[in-house]
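Example complex used in Figure S2.
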Amino acid sequence: MPELPEVETTIRGIAPHVCGQKIKRVIVRDSRLRWPVAKETIEIQGRMIEAVSRRGKYILMQLDQGTLIWHLGMSGSMRILPVGTPPEKHEHIELQLCSGLALKFRDPRRFGALLYTDKDPLQHRLLSQLGPEPLSHDFSTDYLYAACRNKGAAIKSVIMNSRIVTGVGNIYACEALFSAGIDPTRKAGGISKKRLAILIEAIRDTLRAAIQRGGTTLQNFTQVDGKPGYFRHSLQVYGVKEPCGVCGTAIRQVVQGQRSSYYCPKCQT
DNA sequence: AAAACTACCTGAGTGC
DNA sequence: TGCACTCAGGTAGTTT
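Predicted assembly (269 residues):
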């Protein structure tokens, strides 16, 4: 589920409730996430949550001492509910705050993660290799053009490569390539600088629009208040069974790198 | 070095 | 109803 817009939606939702709050109690109902939740990770009772931010798809929760690093994996979501609200199925972690509210982490597939570091979280080995943020100026035409040079890989796998640009997952890669009119299977190395500039703007526009609508809910994702993300209704190719809304050609589904790509064979070349 | 593939999980949906 | 099967938003780690 969660790509950059869903993670951004999540941090915007939790930040007002957790920033400035002291952690009263930590409950780990199931520590078997992508990596086992370490004991030191949950020994944070009494600490203050000072800030919540995002790097790629990682959520950084800065404490008065140390940082929690969360990842939502494929099926993770967070909610804010009163302490005492009965846990839902797959609700593995709960941070009870002094305000009487609790941050609840639910993740049916358990591909998510919760880590702790007392060093600079951006230097953590999981984050240090990440490419630029797609909404930042560092993700420029010159940068992407250089990254694509001499690459035989398909453009879709390039923009989904977190070392090249972080936060773009399967849905938004498909959607941005549709908006840019680029065939997802096209070799990255052969695409002109001009078209890459269009692709960068398409990625930014797609991500911004999705953030505005609270992300995309296919199955599990919810905003912090429990509502789904509404960008699903704006999807133009991902999972779309109907003909292309622009030209009427049937949307094609192909498998690239074990992932489904959806595209319009007429609009995308 | 880069590309291809595996593994980690649960649940929804499909076809018989 | 139920069983067997496929597929799903991510990504680290291994193999080719």
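Residues 32, 34, 73-75, 90, 107-111, 151-153, 157, 219-220, 257-258 of chain A lie near DNA strand B (CB under 10 Å from a C1'). The beta strands of chain A are 23-28, 49-55, 58-63, 67-71, 77-82, 91-97, 101-106, 113-117, 252-256, 259-263.
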